[in-house]
């Protein structure tokens, strides 16, 4: 709750400085993972709270997409980029759910249809490559993007932490992200840590 209060304060100060800008929000809460070990209790509540906050802050458009499969997650992020490019000045993304990184420090968001007992290949094929998304977002010039990843949790998909050589590097949380100008990324905890 402390974390969400901080986010709300951030929104209020953001709202004052961006009153004349057209604002877009994407809110994703992944809770009901097909793997019973992955089920989370908070993301849908967090998603609802964030949606209500964006409504109060009079965002022009709010996309709420919960419990997304890989294909639906890809579609939600693509729809966000398309809308931002064509119609909006400011974008805000809130994601709550599982996230992980591979041994190459690439961060991934985990869709609800992620396989049980995954390998590193499953991460590359079945998790959403967030670093790739950021690179594509950086190509949309003249926009401000604020992204909150509430995804640094204990990862139930421990086997996906193994490197290609087969060793376990004890990777936790999400990797550090260094976005370019115009993109701010906030985590629920420090890089490589769990909340």
Overall strand count: 8
User: What is the typical, i.e. mean, pLDDT?
Assistant: 79
- Rough outline: globular
Specify the biggest β-sheet: 5 strands, parallel
Helix content: 25-40%
- Which consecutive residue ranges, at least 5 long each, have pLDDT under 50? 161-171
Distance between the termini: 13 Å
Radius of gyration: 16 Å
The largest beta-sheet arranges its strands as: 2-1-3-7-8
Query: How much strand?
Result: 15-25%
Structural class: alpha/beta
**SSE pattern, N- to C-terminal:** HEHEHEEEHEHEE
Number of helices: 5
Describe the structure.
The protein contains 5 helices and 8 strands, in the order αβαβαβββαβαββ. It is of the alpha/beta class and 195 residues long. Strands 2-1-3-7-8 form a 5-stranded parallel beta sheet, with helices on both faces. A 3-stranded antiparallel beta sheet has the order 4-5-6.
Secondary-structure map:
Layout lengths: L1 H16 L5 E7 L13 H14 L4 E6 L3 H18 L2 E7 L2 E3 L5 E3 L10 H7 L1 E2 H9 L5 E7 L32 E5 L8
Parallel strand pairs: 1-2, 1-3, 3-7, 7-8
Antiparallel strand pairs: 4-5, 5-6
């Amino acid at each position: 709750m402390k974390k969400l209060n901080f986010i709300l304060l951030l929104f209020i100060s953001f709202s004052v400085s961006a009153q004349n800008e057209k604002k877009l929000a994407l809110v994703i809460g992944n809770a009901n993972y097909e793997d019973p070990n992955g089920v989370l209790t908070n993301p849908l509540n967090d998603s609802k709270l964030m949606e209500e906050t964006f409504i109060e802050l009079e965002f022009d458009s709010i996309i709420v997409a919960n419990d997304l499969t890989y294909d639906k997650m890809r579609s939600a992020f693509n729809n966000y980029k398309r809308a931002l490019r064509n119609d909006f000045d400011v974008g805000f993304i809130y994601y709550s759910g599982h996230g992980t990184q591979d041994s190459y420090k690439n961060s991934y968001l985990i869709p609800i249809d992620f396989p049980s007992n995954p390998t590193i290949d499953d991460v590359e094929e079945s998790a959403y490559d967030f670093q790739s998304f950021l690179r594509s977002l950086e190509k949309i010039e003249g926009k401000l993007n604020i992204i909150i990843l509430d995804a640094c949790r204990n990862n139930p998909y421990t086997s996906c932490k193994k490197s290609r050589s087969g060793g376990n590097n004890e990777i936790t949380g999400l990797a550090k992200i260094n976005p370019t100008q115009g993109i701010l990324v906030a985590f629920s905890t420090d890089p490589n840590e769990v909340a």
